[in-house]
Amino acid sequence: MTTVMTDAEPLAAGGGALARQRRRTALLSAAAVALLVVLTAIGLGTGEVSIPPVDALRGLVGLGDPGNVMLVQELRAPRVLSAVAAGAGLGVAGAILQRVARNPLASPDVVGVTGGASLGAMAVIASGASAALISPAALGGGLLAAGLLGLLAWRGGFTVSRLVLVGLAVQSGLAAAVNLLIVRFPAELASSALQWTTGSVYGRTWTEVEAGGGAILAGLVIALVAHRRIAVLDLGDDSAGSLGLPPNTARLQLLLLAVVLASVAAALTGPVGFVALAVPHIVRFLAGPPTTGTLALTALTGAVLLLGADLVVLHLLPVHGLPVGVVTATLGAPWLLVLMLRQMKPNAGSATR
User: Fold this and answer.
1) Position 10 pLDDT exceeds 50
2) How far apart are CA 283 and CA 78, in angstroms?
3) Per-residue model confidence as pLDDT tens digits over 337-352
4) Measured at the alpha carbon of residue 265, what is the angle toward residues 124 and 69, in degrees to the nearest 5?
5) d(CA 260, CA 270)
6) Which distant-in-sequence residues (6+ apart) come within 8 Å of 236 by Cβ?
7) Distance separating alpha carbons of residues 261 and 267, to the nearest angstrom
8) In angstroms, what CA-CA distances link 286 with 184, 203, 279, 301?
9) Who is most buried in 78, 174, 238, 267, counting CB within 10 A?
10) How many CA atoms lie within 13 Å of 182's alpha carbon, on the beta-carbon side?
11) What sign does the CA torsion over 186, 188, 193, 198 have?
């Protein structure tokens, strides 16, 4: 007996797959929130003076013993919240860059944004100016690098492959300039400068957390709202244009959003490597194709990864005072190698259109 499939059956199958992905994304997001709360409690409660996790969380909102409240709010919370905000911003920035550039290797580390942030911060340190200017200078350096990238990538016609290649050149040049500054530093400044360029959340203040965290939160909201534009661009430039979305204009706006997120994150923590590169791939592996829900999950996963890496630096490594970028780079270097090997496969060519 021959079975006849109606037109409604493929639609129902597709709808069922989408519903399953939504449930999986919701479960993963709930697990990420729970893990983030646990890591936050550990970060706020552990140190030379230990505080029970529940009391540490209560101290964060000003409840409980006044001594615990002071210890948590003044000394530990800025570091923890900086890691959470920067991790979320880097994760989403990486996801946007990879989809807009249609290249799984695209990230702020690769296209020059973090190199520009490092150069801005190093210029302030080298000049002996106030440390309060380091974060604004890092933000300005990241935006300047993005402007240079856009200027060079748009000359002769914009293509996504040109964007990535120009970004690699910009990052290499900026990294060389940063290394030159460090070599020229007085000995008493070289160690602190080198720590900043590796990425660290040590010594963050509430002023930096409020400014940087607020900017990242606003950027995340804009990214979620703009996800429909990213989805339309995924269809190709011709399809996007036929749907009324100018592809180059939309791509430029989304790139600017990613640059701002990455630059603000770098201003908070320094150029922490590989978070923006790896997190979108982890989320795609766990939750499936990109949706608005997976973009929110990307922010949560980035926050969990960077905060977890900072806790490893603080409490598990035998060497005291290592920057958090050491841990993320150790985890990210093998991941980058795997991605590059996958890109070398013949069927991976479509990823670099």
Assistant:
1) no
2) 27
3) 776 676 666 555 444 4
4) 95
5) 14
6) none
7) 10
8) 45, 34, 11, 11
9) 267
10) 18
11) positive
Q: How far is Cα 264 from Cα 140, in angstroms, rounded to an integer? A: 9
Pair of tokens at residue 120 = 């801005």
What number of residues does the chain have?
Answer: 353
Q: State residue 343 phi and psi, 5-degree precision.
A: -70, -25
Could you tell me which residues come within 8 angstroms of residue 252 by beta carbon, excluding any fewer than 6 positions away?
150
User: Above 70 in pLDDT, residue 12?
Assistant: no
**Alpha helix positions (H), 102-129:** 113-127
* Angstrom distance (rounded) from CA 178 to CA 153: 22
CA-to-CA distance for 162 and 18, rounded, in angstroms? 34
How far apart, in whole angstroms, are the C-alpha atoms of residue 184 and residue 238? 51
**Banded pLDDT at 89 (limits 50, 70, 90):** very high
| pTM of the entire predicted model | 0.85
Q: Calculate the alpha carbon distances from 123 to 182, 269, 288 in Å.
A: 10, 17, 42
Q: Is residue 105 exposed (0-12), middle (13-18) or buried (19+ Cβ within 10 Å)?
A: buried
